[in-house]
Design a protein that fits this description.
alpha/beta; 6 helices; 169 residues; six-stranded parallel beta sheet; homodimer
């Protein structure tokens, strides 16, 4: 099954993390591939590392945030590496759950193409594949087995609250 | 801050679980209180137990699902115990993150009253409080600091797929 968690509200990546925890609890094999992220100080990364959790994590990003109005060549290279890892992970049949974190945004910002994302639907696999990120393409929504829109009804960011350690990262 | 994750789509409890993981990664102290659930075979519960994760978990339910058209006295008793534990947890100042899983549904099904849920907003606390479950009351949405509606765009349940171990529980 392919899940898509999209929308402008809080809860997309955390939802994927929750699925990971649930799957690991049942001894499933899990792979987390993060597009446009490269930071081992995220709470979730620290958690899995500190507790020696059996999960394969691959981050593909740079030390800088991607500028959507002017993405750099290195950003595209990293996203393409993440994509290659995604295919490798699916083809390996080593995993029961594969999370492609922020892949929807990587497509939206044209770091990889929508055709590439579509191609992921062609693989025959028993693995559960989870794609997160705002602005999922309408074709993805039509093709996926499960789609939840995380819709922002209200966010404390709009009241001036900054991102906080342990809550947003 | 008080978060509400509501709506009919998949991703509410998993989102709270993801927040838990992120908070634990930054050494925050976490309490998970589950309304209407009593099953130590949920993937997330097994995960936290098997990996000796430092988290306090309290489940309040019975071996049977609550029948919303005919809730039993024991269902109300359990929900009230969960509520008392919620207040204790907040007042203890022992936790940085307190998750009240399915509390919105417990209110909707009148196992506890909306006034009781509202009262939780009166406590002065630095803890992050997360309330999950469909059908959050409009007053809760107005009072919370962050609200995400997990909106079902598409769900494989509607295509006949049953709940699966490691994905739905």
């Amino acid at each position: 099954m392919i899940h898509i968690y999209t929308g402008n509200g809080k809860g997309k990546t955390t939802s994927a993390l929750g699925l990971i925890v649930r799957a690991l609890g049942h001894k499933k094999r899990v792979c987390l591939i993060q597009f446009m992220k490269k930071d081992d100080q995220y709470g979730e990364i620290l958690f899995f590392k500190n507790n020696s959790i059996s999960i394969d994590i691959f981050q593909y990003g740079t030390d800088n945030f991607v500028d959507p109005t002017n993405p750099q060549e290195i950003d595209k290279q990293q996203a393409n590496l993440a994509y290659i890892k995604a295919i490798e992970s699916i083809e390996s049949n080593q995993y029961d759950l594969i999370v492609l974190d922020e892949i929807n945004v990587a497509v939206k910002w044209e770091l990889i193409t929508i055709e590439m994302q579509k191609k992921l639907f062609d693989f025959v696999t028993d693995a559960e594949i989870v794609m997160t990120g705002r602005c999922a393409d309408i074709d993805m929504i039509n093709m996926a087995d499960l789609v939840t829109e995380m819709k922002e009804i209200k966010h404390y960011f709009n009241a001036g609250q900054d991102a906080r350690k342990g809550i947003e990262y």
